[in-house]
Amino acid sequence: MTKYKALLFDKDGTLLEFHNMWLNVARAACEQVKAYSEQHNANSDVTSSELLLAIGVEGDVVDNYGLLASNPVEDTALVWFELLKPKVTLVEFTQITKLAFNEQVEQNPQWIEALPGIGDKLSQLKQQGMLLGVATADTKDSTLYTLQQSGLEGLFDYVGYSDGDIEPKPAPALLNAFCEQCGIKPHEVIMFGDTVSDMEFGRNAGAKNVGVLTGTAQQHELEPMADIVIASVADFNPTEFNELI
After folding, report:
1. Residue 189 and residue 175 in contact, taking contact as beta carbons nearer than 8 Å
2. CA distances from 218 to 39, 62, 99, 237 (A)
3. What mean pLDDT is predicted for residues 81-97?
4. Which residue, of 76, 110, 144, is where some domain finishes?
5. Beta bridge partners of 189
6. CB distance 198 to 14 below 8 Å
7. This model's pTM is above 0.90
8. Assigned domain for 206 exists
9. 28 lies in a domain?
10. Residue 23: which pLDDT band, with cuts at 50, 70 and 90?
């Protein structure tokens, strides 16, 4: 008999492939935002490499604690705004940055793919009566588009995203919204994620945590905040989890 009613998943790195997509998106969006800024008297000494490093991207490596891995686009916009210093308002610059990220995602569907076995596993869990939700740092447009392109969109009872109108992870707001919408309690939820921020989010809300190794964090980084760490969501077994907890 399962102790839990609902499963809440981070999106990128947990359900969808992270590195290929977001390295490409970040690099392309960076160039787009830099070009816009230079048209508005920005600091031209700032390089693309410096902008990417500021959000946790160095070469082909994404920092698990960096902004790209864990934070909403608004945080990237703020850091880039402070470096580039374009002669526009932060509000306008944030809109341009979000648009750049959204456009890069929507113009490059070939970068979007579900991780191996995820679709089948989510379908099985739903058939077993589990409520399923998504809680991501991504924007609304990008979230809905990537779930559609990956073939996962119809599986969720709740989709929560960070688009400036709700406090982002690791604050518990998205998990609380999942509970409110589905009529459940936080202690009836298991949170799945590939970052330390995801684990902090689940713990802050009062849920159990499952760390996965399909994204940016390593096992030793997730273990202090996770109830268990598994290779992938595709390997999750509710019966085994109940026996461990």
Report:
1. yes
2. 40, 12, 31, 21
3. 97
4. 110
5. 6
6. yes
7. yes
8. yes
9. yes
10. very high
Residues 236 and 138 in one domain: yes
Q: Is residue 1 part of a domain?
A: no
Specify whether the CB–CB gap between 230 and 213 falls below 8 A.
yes
Q: What's the total number of domains in the chain?
A: 2
Rounded to whole angstroms, the Cα distance separating 168 from 173 reads 7
DSSP letters, the chain, are --S--EEEE-SBTTTB--HHHHHHHHHHHHHHHHHHHHTTT--TT--HHHHHHHTTEETTEE-TTSHHHHS-HHHHHHHHHHHH--SS-HHHHHHHHHHHHHHHHHT-GGG--BPTTHHHHHHHHHHTT-EEEEE-SS-HHHHHHHHHHTT-GGG-SEEE--SSSSPPTTSTHHHHHHHHHHT--GGGEEEEESSHHHHHHHHHHT-EEEEESSSS--HHHHTTT-SEEES-GGG--HHHHHHH-
pLDDT category at 164 given cuts 50, 70, 90 is confident
Q: What angle do CA 189, 194, 199 make, to 5 degrees?
A: 50
Backbone phi and psi for residue 186, each to the nearest 5 degrees, phi listed first: -55, -35
What average pLDDT does range 27-53 have in this prediction? Answer: 96
Cβ(162)–Cβ(153) below 8 Å: no
Task: Name the residue range of residue 158's domain.
Answer: 6-17+112-244
Judge whether 128 lies within some domain: yes
- Residue where the block lists tokens 């160039």: 31
| Domain end position, chosen among 90, 110, 130 | 110
Phi and psi at 16, nearest 5°, equal -110, 150
Radius of gyration of the chain (CA): 18
Going 209 to 214 to 220 to 221, the CA torsion angle's sign is: negative
